[in-house]
Amino acid sequence: MLTTGRYLPAEAMPAYRVARPGLYILTVGAGAAAGGMLLGTLQARLNGMAEPDVSMAGGIAGAIVAVEIFRRPLGISAPTGIVFAAPFAVLIVVGRIGCFLAGLDDYTYGTPTRLPWGVDFGDGVRRHPVQLYESLAMAAMLALLLWRMARQDLFWLRSGFYLTVGWYGLQRFAWEFIKPYATVMGPFNLFHLVCFSLVLYALVRVRQRSFP
Asked: Is 75 left (phi over 0), alpha (psi -120 to 50) or beta?
């Protein structure tokens, strides 16, 4: 039996390649751009903002939908997302720091708080720095992901992308409760629904990979 690395048989490794890599990258990019712009702008409209906006949650959701729709034409027959797991986590970690530095203009800050780490973005109101909450949460996932991949953990090699997406959706769902966004269903805003969908998607995919 052929082996890869220290522990895993070659046939146990997830497939990292697709039949048409150029089209695959184009599909991921187009889905991310469309989802990010559509959902970001929709939430902006709900918040009473006229300008279009872009959403990270919408971007990941759009990329996933695009790949799932075009899985067969792209020649995808096995998991391919693991190569995007760490870059995705890094994107959120760094991107949310950028959102924090952008201050009020970015409209990603949290609701007012009396907690000692509340941040005044220049208008005299101390708010939850939810951008940093999200950045720290994804940094923790990134560390765990890299550790398990370095250990050649088969479960994480198979499901690491879905676990990362699921954690992103779960922690983002929590932070949405302390953002000043208009709600669409009870206490939930649009991104609550998007993040719930991401968590559900991740759970289904992890189960499929864990019990082939």
From this structure: left
Residues of the chain short of pLDDT 70, as ranges, are 1-21, 74-81, 210-212
- Cβ–Cβ < 8 Å for 46, 184: yes
- The sign one gets for the Cα dihedral 65, 70, 75, 77 is positive
Task: Count the neighbouring beta carbons within 10 Å of the beta carbon of residue 86.
Answer: 17
For the chain, which residues make up each domain, given as ranges?
19-77, 81-212
User: How far is residue 148's CA from residue 156's CA, in Å, rounded to a whole number?
Assistant: 6
The predicted structure's pLDDT at residue 5:
43
What digits encode the pLDDT tens for the residues 53-69? 889 899 999 999 988 88
d(CA 192, CA 145): 24
> pTM of this prediction?
0.87
